[in-house]
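Quick start: read one record
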Amino acid sequence: MSKYTKSEDEIIVSNYGITPITLWADKLPTRTIDAIASRARRLKLKSGLIGNQITTGAYVKPTFIPDLPNPDGLTFEELWEAGVVFQHASKRLSTRQNTPTIHLDVDHPIAVCFVADTHIGALDTPLDVVRARFDLLEEYPWIYPAGCGDMTDNYVPTSHAAGMFGALFPPELQKELVENLYARLKGRWLWLIQGCHDEWSHNADDFDLTKYMSKNLGCVNLGFGGLVKLMVGAQEYQIAVRHKYRYNSSYNLTHAPKQLVRFDEQTADIAVVAHNHVSAIEQVQEKGKDRMYIRPGSMKGADRWARSVGFTDTGKNMPCVVLWPNKRQMMGFMDLEQCADYMQSLGLGRKTE
């Protein structure tokens, strides 16, 4: 490549950065555009060109139609106020309750059956056993079911995806089966609680199964748990219930519900914590009154993960508590069948057509 002449340098200095090289490159017929740009850089000239568009140097300011938006009219104070209004409006749409009062206008004992961890859709959940339990509940109108979470197994790709290998049905069909099963007791459900497996759908696509089911069943949506004031006739029973809680112990199975009372719900008569798939019921005398502590267990047997860490079959119990309307008296049963037999002995047995 020949050396640049003085006249060539003058052409570059007088044009570079003002008009695109493509418009005056013919003045330097022996030079390519890249060569001209390289020479300009060697001459310490500042480039005003990117391709054929001028970014610096002389230009005409563009006119925008319509005008560009001007945010100066919206103050941050207005934005804060709009946020406050939205928060209050969205909270009014929530159906969750933390301290509901439920009335049962009766003059005879009733029973509450704690239905937890049915895990419909899992290979290790025996559907015949689950269906038989609901058959029994359907036959005894004075045994009221109370949902304690994990209605479906509901392993989804966004949460513990490997669990999907242990599914009998896909998540959508699991939910439809639960809806069909729980609807058999519509009008008798006291509350439903959001379990961790239920929450996986909530996290994945914002579908709140517990909100949906409680609305259709006509019962309380207790969210992740709360303190229920259950009025049986004129007698009040306070029931603290959660799907999960801290302070679990393999040696003391009712440790978690005891700590639920100790730290959060000191007035509770009954404390229930589900999730661990182990059944336990304990009645103790504490500070002038007796309390009951319950772990409801699960309908699901030991799955692959449970077997890998040494868990065995859980027994598939549904603990129940009989409550009296004219005095503060509680009687616990480890399983639904035992409670049904007792209700039958009180003359509160199977419904008649």
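The longest strand covers residues 225-232.
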